[in-house]
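LOG
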Amino acid sequence: MMTDVDDRLTAAELAQLWNTFMNNKMYKCVLLYCENKAEDQELTAIIKNAIQICDGIISEIIAIYEKENHPIPIAMNEDEDVNISAPKLYSEILMLSYIHDMTRYGMIGYSTAVSIAVREDVEELFNKALQEDIQLYKRTLSLLQSKGTYYRSPSIPIPEKIEIADKGSYLSGFVGKQRALTVVEVMNLYNDMQRNALGKAVFLGLSQTVASNDIEKFLLKCVNHFNKNVEKFANTLIKDNISTSPTLDSEVLHSTTPPFSERLMLGQVVMFIATLTGYYGTALGTVSRRDLGEIYAAVLVDTVELGNQAAKLLIKYGWLEQAPQSVDHKFQMK
């Protein structure tokens, strides 16, 4: 006997829709500020394209929400969370680097969303977002390269033969002979070094514009956290005579006028931390040297704790919007 198809949104689809809506609303605020400050024509065109993509995604999610009688999340908005008239806080190189990194984050997020989508409208939304994000990634990459500010992951000599791991040294790292880093380990260390360098620069700029003492102290703590991580990852590469990339600290300008609300500043921390913990978890599962496992485990714990502190501040100021929750049946029975 045929039964009606269950066409309700799944919890996984609701999660991806909510995360995507919240992130794109916040991302659009940042882009609007960057658009107002950018002078380079190619960068301005990229920013306008990114804003159009955000608007399209936001509109399509609202349409699905309205179809399902789902409340529209409050999220960030351009009326309350961005001051586009504030002086320039970041150089255009840092703006471009930020947008490029967001496209990388988007490709991972949208591909995950496509892989769990069941409903056709949800799958089409995220597949379109993924394709648009890939094209935007290519544009940001090309512009970074043309300006000589894209720092490629290090190259290594092509191996002459396939080698089988030696059980005595492959996993070692603390004492005795230490093997060279694998390409997988180099990839993780280098990329995570760059991501932390970007995070340090972003929050260094925000920390000099914030008004609340507790949020300023927290942002400076974030800067110190990212700086330590840059040093850990860079020093590990240097020990193996592998090149590192420059930091972005010098791309932070002198303005002390806040371009964003403190709510958005903390939202940026949460987004960075959510992204980094995912990367660290992946790295932890793929590195083999024991010393690298210990480095990533410690960094992951510290990063999660930083996220908890950000959440406490958001709750303190009444800014933490909850994701949709399942029914608490035990509470309902009381």
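LOG (cont.) second protein
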Amino acid sequence: PAGLDFQQMSYGAARGFVSEIDDPYTVYMDPIESKEFADGLDGKLEGIGAELEMKENQLIIVAPLKNSPAIAAGLRPGDIIVAIDGESTQDVGLFEAVTKIRGPKGTQVILTIVREGRDEAFDVAITRDSITLESVTVEPVTDTIYHVSLNQFNDTTRREFGNAIEQILLERGSGMILDVRGNGGGFLDISIDILSELLEGEKIAVIVRERGKEDDFLKTSGNARLPDLPLVVLVDKGSASASEIVAGALQDYKRGILIGTQTFGKGTVQEIKRLQDGSSLRFTVAEWFTPKDRSIEELGIMPDIEVEFTEEDLKVERDPQLEAAVEYLQNR
């Protein structure tokens, strides 16, 4: 029939085929979606600035990105998006939802949100913007305690985290607050690079378990520059995947104290297969476990000290989790 776009039909067929695998982390991406996914890993995109996942057939906000329209609009980790511009998200795939939410700078999208603790769904209007996310930021919170935010685990993280360490060493820091709140993850090998700077000796960073193969024990480099610096790790519901690898290992080795709330619970490993036409397939290849062989899939990691961050705290621009971290390091 006239007017049919066979290319789009083939993309739709591929999505349908992959969706039958029934794994929320295995997805087909057409060429446009593949480019947007790559741009997001590079910290460059246009949209609202939020990492999304499908969990139990619900579209969940894992983490609003720092300094994004999503943050400005008050979106929070764990929010469930039930409609986009009035259209239900039921039976909508992850990347279809992402495509609907993303858009050119200056345009608006209306999300209908269900939030724990609120009786009814509510609408949030968000104006899309260009977003460039720094992988690592560092700032002193006292004369000698440094707040290091890990916002992503991408190709620039290793260098940027190394620069943060050099600054702390040069200025003789007495403690570090490693903040992975709202960090939905990234490259697994970068999480091992982070742990290599904090754990003394060659230690197991993560156990990767693939069906039909022997366990792969991935280890740190043994060249840590901050093996003894007092450390607090801030976590929340938006800390997922590579963030949980870092937090889980540091907790297992009692290298630092975790403060905040329960993490997201993503304990699987994905690979990306790029296809000739520019499309790609992201598929699950393994599960990962902490050095003590803990699975965090759908469970998350419980912090050592639980501190909530409420809507009221957000309104008055107070960060009780960061305050608790500073207090812990000052009084240890």
